[in-house]
Known about the structure:
9 strands, alpha+beta, single chain
Amino acid sequence: MSSRINDPLFGAPPERVQLGAAPLVRVLAQVRFSKIIKISEEQHIGDFQEVLRQEYPHLAKDAAQALEFEVNQGAVSTKSTNEVIWRLFDAQKIWRVSLAPEFISIETAVYTSRDDFLSRTERVLNAVSRTLKPALATRVGFRYLNRLEGQHNLGDLEKLIHPELVGMHSGALRSHIVGASSQIEAATREGRLLARWGLTPAGASHDPNMAPPANETSWVLDIDSFKENNPVEEGFRAAELSEMVGTMANRAYAFFRWSAQDEFLRRFGGNI
């Protein structure tokens, strides 16, 4: 009997099945907050770094382009600016914390357990709350990406993934398809869910920051579960925000379990 749930968007998330060899590329949690301009300046992040320095000793300065919108007498104009992002890494550089004027995130390519991830997330959010004191959290999200590689997996895609997501890859043209992608944004019980999936050619990626290009054709499932527009009524409370990250993770997992066949769970180490 299939373990598939009926409603991945509003139904109760299923009990988790631990996968010993999950094909995860990256797992990320992000909390956006009302802009703190001083974060761009090195002299203002020392206290934040000090709180996390033992766990994340490496510090680097990065920059990303951002668009700013200005409205003047009814006319809208845009300008490109460089946004400073501070990157903190653990000693082995398998965990990365990113701090920018409008967000904090934590991510890893080596995901071991939900409890470990959420514990790390809460410690990072505590550091932000104690040292930078954001006035308002505006978005909380949890995102993770699975990638299937190798002909033994791509050839069995119909056994691993439910038909709604396989699409034309199961049809008569499958041997000629080089790449295909689909995307949905849907309401959920807690907020919203953005899912992207499809066949990706070798050397390509729909989001290189999340999934560096693979050397061969692959099939990806990228799930982002989030809540925005002042998810925390007042202030920036680390424990409450971390709990909300866990809630978003549950919803993302519900969609994953709706997408994956039982053979997927068995093939990647699940005991079902």
